[in-house]
Amino acid sequence: MHSTTTRRLTAVVTAAAILVGGLAAAAPARAATVVSTSVPSGTTLQPGDAMTSSNGQFRLVMQGDGNLVEYGVGNVVVWASNTAKYPGAVMDVGTDGVLVLRRGGQLIARWGAGGVVGRDFGVLPDGTLRMRDSAKKTLWTIRSFQDRVTAGNVIQPGTVLRSDAGTSRQFTMQADGNLVQYVDGAATWASNTSGHPGAWAAVQTDGNLVVYGPDRRALWSSRTSRAGAGQLMVQADANVVLYGASDTRVWSTRPVTGMLWPVASTKISGKYGDDRGAGHTPRYHQGTDANVPVGTPVYASGGGTVTQTVANDPSFGNYVVVQYGMTTVLTAHLSVIEVTKGQVVAKSTEIARSGNTGQSTGPHVHVETRVGGTLKDPMTILHFR
After folding, report:
1. Fewest C-beta atoms under 10 Å: which of 94, 161, 185, 272?
2. Residue 134 sits in the same domain as residue 106
3. 127-163 b/e with 16+ CB inside 10 Å = b?
4. Residues 246 and 281 in one domain
5. Which residues contact 244 (CB under 8 A, 6 or more apart)?
6. How far apart, in whole angstroms, are the C-alpha atoms of residue 121 and residue 141?
7. Same domain for 297 and 211
8. How far is CA 162 from CA 78, 122, 309, 324, in A?
9. Structural domains of the chain, count
10. How far apart (Å, rounded) are the C-alpha atoms in residues 287 and 261?
11. What does the pLDDT look like over 276-334, one tens digit per residue?
12. What is the domain range of residue 222?
């Protein structure tokens, strides 16, 4: 399936090709050698070798631990082969259009169907990993995605942020200088800075989002310089939101509406922070309980993505966690889970039915909210339906 010819490319490193900051996963066995934005078929990447997109925003590293990892803006991991238990593995770009990881004669992973003449494999400026045939036609892609950029990083021309692996919700720093949000292919917001090719955007540590021209002159800003260092997020609710240092929204491409309580009821049987007495772990209640009968519909709180679905947990029984930007909502003690991990939901999506599972003293839904990973009182975040 693979050519026995192996090529190693000489290091070609430019200032734009290296991003500051440490790696977010196990580092290569030696310093990464940036070989190219694309490599021809027959090429082998050895441990420590890397490829980078032409705008320097995405790097694909063949790590010494055997993991093939793509890093995005700010060195966050956006994709990985999850093969870290094979130290010394290499990546082969096959002449048959197949990409493989191997260690000696052992096949570890492969991508592509084969049976064609492969031309090259590359990292695109939007983070997509692509294999092409001899006619320069795309054979297959790995569409990785990055949904957030933390303060102190820039968004270079050609970079595309996505809420998920699909293409329906995107935020793009275009080559013409325009920063544009697309929803289902239609532009829904723009900085109106086209006509300045080479412009780039900065998520600044002062809390400001700024589009700069090639001459470093500010062309547009969110005017939030007092918000402090936070992050920019492309959310599943079709909104792009800038969060400040306190994890609160300071700017967004569309008006922000409140998040909703998961059940159509205002009955509360246990409040956040209640002392449940000695012997309880944790002793103080970490959520708020909705006193509803078994089988009551449980809904998403807004537009978000399901990050966890767990059955038969000793404490929570059946539970679901949904991510809404910086906020996560956990609903527990469910009788039925009706969504899957990775599913995009809306406020009208029924995600479960209430129950009495796990360490529950009666039918109810336990609701926990976290903002930036910190527990918060659900009643200060969620609004009754």
Report:
1. 185
2. yes
3. bbbbbbeeeeeebeebbbbbbbbbbebbbbbbbbbbb
4. no
5. 207, 224, 227, 228, 229, 230, 250
6. 10
7. no
8. 11, 20, 23, 14
9. 3
10. 13
11. 788 777 888 899 999 999 999 999 999 999 999 999 999 999 999 999 999 999 999 99
12. 148-252
If asked whether residues 367 and 316 sit together in one domain, one would say yes
230 and 305 assigned to the same domain: no
Q: Could you tell me the CATH number of the domain that includes residue 267?
A: 2.70.70.10
SS3 15: helix
Q: Quick one: 125 and 187 in the same domain?
A: no
Q: Determine which helix (DSSP H) or strand (DSSP E) holds 385, and give its type and residue range.
A: none
Tokens representing residue 230 in the block? 């936070």
User: How far is the C-alpha of 200 from the C-alpha of 39, rounded, in Å?
Assistant: 27
For range 36-43, the mean pLDDT: 92
Q: CA-to-CA distance for 191 and 214, rounded, in angstroms?
A: 16
Longest dimension (CA), the chain: 71
**Does pLDDT of 21 surpass 80?**
no
Which residue type does 123 have? V
Higher per-residue confidence, 236 vs 378: 378
**3-class DSSP assignment, residue 74:** helix
In a shared domain, residues 129 and 160: no
pLDDT value for 36: 83
Whole-angstrom distance between the N-terminal and C-terminal Cα of the chain?
Answer: 58
> Distance (Å, rounded) from C-alpha 68 to C-alpha 84?
8
- Which CATH number fits the domain that encloses residue 22? 2.90.10.10
Q: Tokens 């966890």 sit at which residue?
A: 308
For the stretch 264-271, contacts whose Cβ atoms lie closer than 8 Å and that sit 24 or more positions apart, written own/partner, are 264/296, 264/297, 264/299, 264/385, 265/290, 265/291, 265/292, 265/296, 266/384, 267/291, 267/292, 268/379, 269/362, 269/364, 270/364, 270/366, 271/379
The domain boundary, picked from 209, 226, 252, lies at 252
d(CA 47, CA 22) in angstroms, rounded, equals: 18
Cα 292 vs. chain centroid, distance in angstroms? Answer: 34
pTM: 0.74
